[in-house]
Structures are given as structure tokens and as C-alpha cells.
Amino acid sequence: MNAEQILAECRETGLPLSKIAVRRESAATGLSEEEIRARFDRMLGVMEKSASAAREQAVYSVSGLTGGDAFRYENYRGRSLLGETLSLAVACALSCSEVNASMGRIVACPTAGSCGIVPAAVLAAGRGLSREKLIDGLLCAGLAGQIIGEHACLAGAQGGCQAECGSAAAMAAAAVVEMLGGSPQQSFDAAAIAIKNTLGLVCDPVGGLVEIPCVKRNAGGVAGALCAADMALAGIRSHIPFDDAVEAMDRVGRQLPASLRETAAGGLAATVTGRALAEKIAR
Ligand code: SF4
Q1: What is the pLDDT of residue 63?
Q2: Which site in 3, 75, 115, 169 is 20 to 30 Å from 124, CA atoms measured?
Q3: How many other C-beta atoms can be found within 10 angstroms of the C-beta atom of residue 133?
Q4: Cα–Cα distance between 91 and 75 in angstroms, integer?
Q5: Which of 61, 203, 211 to mutate to test the pocket of ligand 1 (most atoms within 8 A of CB)?
């Protein structure tokens, strides 16, 4: 399955991406549309909790390396430079990531390390929309993620952070466009732009823990996702189509040295401070 095939299916049937996602999921699992949507509704519930928990009360990771930033940012938000939607998205992304780092419950979308981007985009851009619309967005995100998983990868250890936070940003961008009434082509344009803007992003977690730089990369990832969605909704096309962007991500991932693929041997993990923090938590 690729985006070209999905877009052709949309053209033939006149159906939006979320309906195509349901049809395909139903064919693969044997579940009815109602059952599939109920499953996504349960995921949305988990996302809502993780996106608010660390904003309401400071949450810290088990290692003590990270925490408290979602709460800090939530209290600052009234003065944010970013406007209501983006500042809420940043706060939600920080919250999900901190909940993950504290071993709380999150939805890996596509992974635990990148778990803040899709919920933050869907919840912030979806304020005032029906729950059904948010579920449509998540279905769309799933479709984009499935294509990336089939043609590239979704793991930092395999493809670098572009495969985790980059994929999540693409999934989130596609979701937001669908939720806000954009066309299937616009969803894939947004997803392609998100991938292009994260291409080559390395995976370099300090001490091998999914905390530094992961928590803040989720905040940056949702900003990139919303920016990509906004451009696509404005009618800006991606010169490089989604399928090509995914192919580039796959190729770039294979070219990344092992030190930049979750081994904690390169990038930020290999800085003086990164190494010192790793030593501190190992003691
Ligand atoms: S830096 Fe690595 S571990 Fe952290 S979110 Fe990115 S891919 Fe995941």
C-alpha cells in the first residue's frame, strides 16, 4: 500500500481518507466500522489523559533526568508567543512525553518516544470539533503511519529519530488536515512536508533513556506537524510526493551510522554534558 494507491481509491470511491482507513482496517481485521471506531475512541481517551496529566501536576521521570516542564509550560501559556492552538499543542506534547518517561500510560503513535505529537496535534487543532472528527483524524494518522512502516520504518534504532518523531509529525499533519476538512491530497502533502522537514533527524538519547532530547523533540515535532498541515490547508503543495519522501526517509535511515540510531553513542548523547548525565544516572 502506498499513498498513490490510497489517493486513487479516494478518487474512485469519493470517500475521505478516514473512511478508506476504516475499510482497509476492517478488511485486515474483520472488525466492523463500529468496533474499529470504538477502539480508536479508547485510544483517544488514553491520549486525552496523558496530554493533560503532566500539565495539571508536575510529573518526573524515574531517572530524574526530566520532568516538570509540561506543568511549567502550562503555567506560562498565557504569555506564549505561539498563539492558543500551538501553545496548547506544545503543552500537550510535553505532557504525553513526560507521562511516558515516568512510566505512565500513553499511546505509542507510532512509538513511545514520539507519543506526544499525534495526540497534541489532534487535541489542539481539534478543539471545538466533534469526537467523531478527532477519531477521523486518528484513523488518517494510522494510515500514514502504516505506509511509512511498510516502506521505511518506525523505529529510532533502525532509521533514526526521523523514523519516530518524523513519522509522528507526518501522521499528525495528515490527521489535522482531514479533521479540518482538507482533501486526501492535502493530507498527504502535509505528511510529505512534515517528513521533508525532519529528514535525517538522528536518534541520540542521553544515557539511552527516552528523555533527552525526546521530550522536547515531541514539542518541536508537533509544531512542525501543525505548520505542515497549515501550509497544505492553504493550498501549498509538496513538490516531493509523500511516497517519495518516505523512500528518502528509508534511504537516509540506512545511511545513518549506528552511533546515530539509538545507541547513545553519538549526537547529543556523546556531548560532554550528555556523557556526564549518563554517568550520573548510572551511579
Ligand atoms: S531521540 Fe531516539 S529515542 Fe528519542 S524520540 Fe527520537 S527516536 Fe525515540
Answers
A1: 94
A2: 3
A3: 16
A4: 10
A5: 203
CATH code, domain with 98: 1.10.4100
Give the binding-site residues of ligand 1, using a 6 Å CB cut-off.
113-114, 156, 161, 164-165, 203-205, 210, 213-214, 217, 262
Pocket test for ligand 1, best of 111, 262, 271 (most atoms within 8 A of CB): 262
Instruction: Give the domain range for residue 245.
Output: 3-282
Ligand 1 atom 3: residue of nearest CA: 210
Predicted TM-score (pTM) of the model is: 0.97
Burial class (CB in 10 A: 0-12, 13-18, 19+), 12: exposed
Q: How confident is the model at residue 283 (pLDDT cuts 50, 70, 90)?
A: confident
Domains contained in the chain, number? 1
Protein residue with least CA distance to atom 1, ligand 1? 203
Calculate mean pLDDT across residues 236-258: 98
* Average pLDDT value for residue range 102-122: 98
CA distance 166 to 45: 24
- The answer to whether residue 214 scores a pLDDT higher than 90 is yes
d(CA 152, ligand 1 centre) in Å: 16
User: Which of 94, 109, 161, 216 most suits a substitution to test ligand 1, by most atoms within 8 Å of the C-beta?
Assistant: 161
